[in-house]
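Mods, move this if it's the wrong board.
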Amino acid sequence: PNGTKELRNRRGKAYHQRQFSAQDIDQLLQGWFEDVQCFSQLYRKNLGHYLRKLTGQREHRAGNYSFPLGLMDEAKTWVAICRRPKRRKL
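Not the wrong board. Structure tokens:
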């Protein structure tokens, strides 16, 4: 995720060969697996987040992360659970 945002902000990483959109990832995975569930990793910036930032504590707490179903553009990370590989003809 963030491929278009990183490219727009010129923060692309030289070792990335391609930036995938949500649609690209979904089509790629659906082509190889019968059952695909995709999630977005979101970080909730609550009061504790800002207090840790003010006091110089840099760690992120696991409880501040959520994994809603679907591929959201605002997510920092996408997670896919893929089951039942499709049989490919040789």
